[in-house]
Amino acid sequence: MTCWIELARDAIQLGRQELESRMASVAVNASPPIPLPGHAHVMQLDAPGNEDWIRTLACARRILVPIAQGAPEDLSETVKRTEHEGVTSAVRLWPGDHIPETLARTIGGGIAAGGGRIDLDDPDRTYLLLRVPGTEEFWLCRELAETDRHVLRHRRPGSLPFRKPVTLTPLLARTLVNLAAVPPGGRILDPFCGTGALSIEAGNLGYRVLASDKDGRMVRGTLRNLEHIGIVPEAISQCGVEKVVETFEGHLPVDGVVTDPPYGRASSTHGEEAAAVVENGFRTLQGALRASGRMVFMLPQRTDPAMFGNGWEEVYPPFPLHVHASLTRWVHVWRRTKG
Ligand SMILES: C[S@@+](CC[C@H](N)C(=O)[O-])C[C@H]1O[C@@H](n2cnc3c(N)ncnc32)[C@H](O)[C@@H]1O
What we know:
The chain is 28% helix and 31% strand.
């Protein structure tokens, strides 16, 4: 099935990386995503019919299926031949493509001639028209499904029983978990779990959850939040990051580490130097992660794996997330290189 995946316009690069990572995770036999000409935030790819893995993306808005390319009259003929019995439809114009409103009416005429009914408020089917750049032709596509982004955006951290200012939004947490490209049912460790936002999203995607934090209140809070959502962690413990290998013995190696280390502003480092926590942490985590497994994390500065000796390589260049004037969080996706 050829599908088009509309990424959020403010997250095209991260969205493409998330999509590629999700494809690697589910080992789907799909073609590499490439931008649709003239529409940089729409990725086209050929994938097997089941779109469930695409729906889990946080940086994508919806999945579209192209139907035809041509002049408006040809597209109207195409929809006329489509089965419309008992189905309501709406035709929408792609924002920013400057398509005259009359074109939607031309396609609507084809739907009516095929026995269908137009309902712009609550349609069963939504058709979209996009401009083919540099031509007088258009693409007609159908919206197949919305992704989880819509749901994640409205799931506020405030709905959790235990929350702190450091709690990540579900949208960001889901993105980071997807970037780890862990195969279905694999184990994900968060050794700085805080209130458990990453563990919740890992659990929501069906991964086995391992979580720890140096602060016992955080560990109990994460457990409370997981219980609230109905996720049972495989293992959860109070320990400093330097102790994760001995603490989780029997559950290692994990398939991915997804984490948000402290950097001494909103989140405590418990008296240690933030840089030392990260450095010790990354050294220890090599012993907890399987070879080629990914570690996804955020830090307030770009960090080069060479600073941590051998054993890590970048999967993607660090990606900046602007928080406010004096804080940018950089999303890092590394791979463990040593066996
Ligand atoms: C930025 S917060 C994590 C926030 C979390 N992602 C969330 O959504 O709630 C960092 C956490 O690291 C913990 N921490 C600080 N130093 C640590 C260490 N040496 N080992 C393990 N955890 C540590 C803190 O207690 C804090 O909960």
